Amino acid sequence: MSGQLAAAEPYATRFETEVTSIDGNRVWLERSYFYGESAGQPADRGTIDGIGVVDVQLVDGNLVHVLAQEPSFRVGARVLCSIDWSFRMYCMRAHTASHVLYGAARQLLADLEYGGVDIGEESVLVDLETSTTVDDETLIELDELVNRAVWESRPVSWDDAPVSEARERDDVVFDEGAEDGAVEKGRVRLVTIGGEEDNGGNGNGLASGTTVTVAGDTTESRDAWDVTACGGTHVRNTREIGPVTVLDRFTPESGTTRIELAVGPRAIERREAEKRAALASRRLLGTPLEAASDELARLDAESDVAERLRSLVGRLETDAS
Which SUPFAM superfamilies does the record match to this protein (predicted)? Predict the structure, then answer.
């Protein structure tokens, strides 16, 4: 469920529809599968009747398509619409990856709350409100858990449930103030990353040991990785996300840790850089790759001790003079 058809049918990228209104280069359609910028996810790109779509905004529940120029077609015309599949798929992968990251964070971080996501062309920023300090080791653990979830080919699904029920569930990430695009008529759209693929199961991926009423039916599933209220577009299986690399973390404000990750080519480029650095360390240290970290730690400790000794000798020489 979502006010945006793109969220419900993210793989739909070509469709024909009627133009209902035009205001300069802004166009309204009878129905649209373009995604309007919302909840940290950018607007789709594409064309309407061959004219480039440079922005899509959700205004009062209606999608406003901003074209590169004023169109020659008129209200009532039927137009062929095409969505840039490469960018749509990138956003689907990136948004799903942010959910996978949050599921990983729930396993590692204390007092965790979701602070939002910002999907950029180069990287994805996920804000986590937590009392845990995310150090280098935690960052590595997050990266490992995210990539294991991708490798395990976990099913991804979306459906709706009553808002009142979502509020009561501890396993659901639901910020009513931040997720207005996921709420409609007293129901909330839940995106679920389920357990590992189970061909014998129903594949809807809701949380283990919980029951959720969806359109009047009670469904039980097992071992959900993450269940989040969300109005964005997503892939149907974590394996479609592809390469993911957790890049870094920042602290934009007290109590908030911002995790930066990349999917696709940027993730591959970062992995390549890390691999080159690791191999260079191995060559310089003359140790196996798996022992390089320990050797660097030993050298760092020796350097620290040597610096302290130099400082002590300096003070003794000063006192003696």
Answer: ThrRS/AlaRS common domain, Translation proteins
